[in-house]
Amino acid sequence: MSAVQVSGEVLSLRRAGAYWLMTVVAPGIAERAKPGQFIALAVGGPNTSMPLRRAFAIYQVAERGVYGGTVDVVLSVHGKGTEWLSRLCPHDELDVVGPLGRPFRLPSTPVPVVLVGGGYGSAPLFGLAEALRARRCPTAFVIGAGSADRLFGVLEAKRTAATVTVTTDDGSMGECGRVSDVLPAVIDRIAAEVVYACGPMPMLRAVAEVAATFGLPCQVAVEESMACGIGVCMTCVLPVVGDDGVTRMARSCVEGPVFLADRVRFDDIGTLPADTLGAPAGVAW
After folding, report:
1. How many helices (H) and strands (E) does the chain have?
2. What Å distances lie between residue 276 and 79, 248, 280, CA to CA?
3. 125 shares its domain with 202
4. Based on the structure, what is the number of domains in the chain?
């Protein structure tokens, strides 16, 4: 179903480690959302000098409630827009567009899967975990971050998955290292047949490489900056190989944010490869 624009209302805003967890009443969006999709929020209020929306992966939805359908998102304060959002109060209004983007593809039969999240990038994996559980897919979580306060959803993962492995770069929680360090052992342990991942681009690249060594299909939800969320501004493009073998600059907000990992040219992100469809002949940018 197509996206809608609604006048939403902040139901709650609370700290979650280094992040903020916001629940927004957004009737019409909660009912349409699928795991892997995102919403775009207008920031700054009616007289703002910040015209661009901020995109956030959908963490959880509740289709019905006392106040109507709600959408949960996780915020990390990086600039003026997210700082403004972090100062909102219950009952403040928000202009919301969603659900946007393409969701994760689900297995057609019950198979063991591994869900890999980095930082607050873990957020969209929990709705996915629920959908996989409904399809009777055994799941294992691998959750990582730079430090313990930047992990997200560890306790929830333990309530949801058969096994949970935690890593931190500084060793402040779980195993010292990165998610890609422990992923091979987790794949072996549950005989995984599919890998899903969401987090920073270097992490996605590493996870994609591990999945490729096992010959496993892998889907990644990329964290590119999405200024418009509807494919107009072209700020979130990245080189992706199509079914025909041709590289195109795909818009993360429309063709993604979920891509098949082996189709994303991670080495060329931030550039325009010379063999990209439509690129000037013999020129790489």
Report:
1. 5, 15
2. 33, 5, 9
3. yes
4. 2
